[in-house]
Amino acid sequence: MHPPVCSAAEFRTLFDQQVDFVWRVLRRYGVPDRELEDVCQEVFLIVFRKLGEFEGRSTLRTWIYSIAARVALVSRRKAYVKRELLESPVDEPRTEANQEELATQRRALTLVDEVLSAMDPEKREAFVLYELEGMSVAEVAAAVGVPENTALYRLHRAREELAQRLKRAAVVPTSRPLHARLAGGTGA
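Predicted structure:
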């Protein structure tokens, strides 16, 4: 076993900075809530073991994303083999709104999650990284290992698919960025 490339305190700092990001990636990739903690731990065990192999060709966050995405896909395959039903991940709205507005937000979030779950993995990946995680197109391209134009194309197609499904469901998008609406923020 190779000696660690960072101290326990340094790794704890890395963990604290990235755990929420990894958690969201795992949820968006369909890891069931009951397995999130274990799968997240598995991601960080791999990060710890492989940190010395990180070459810096991308950002650390992009590298961690690629590990989380692979671990999530393996987790989903295992769940499929076990014939478990994957839960639909839904972020709870964080706004203080009336019951009707909360119900509308929950329906919209559920619909977005359903659309994302049914979406082609390549489009979903580009959409989640750009719209929900706030990565730049260059970061998305690096994370998924494609040229920037390909990442843009996938993002465009994912947005079209989401807009069509939302329109059919009579959910009208707002001008606020999607990651701000889903996080309950005010947006720009």
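Summary: The radius of gyration is 17 Å.
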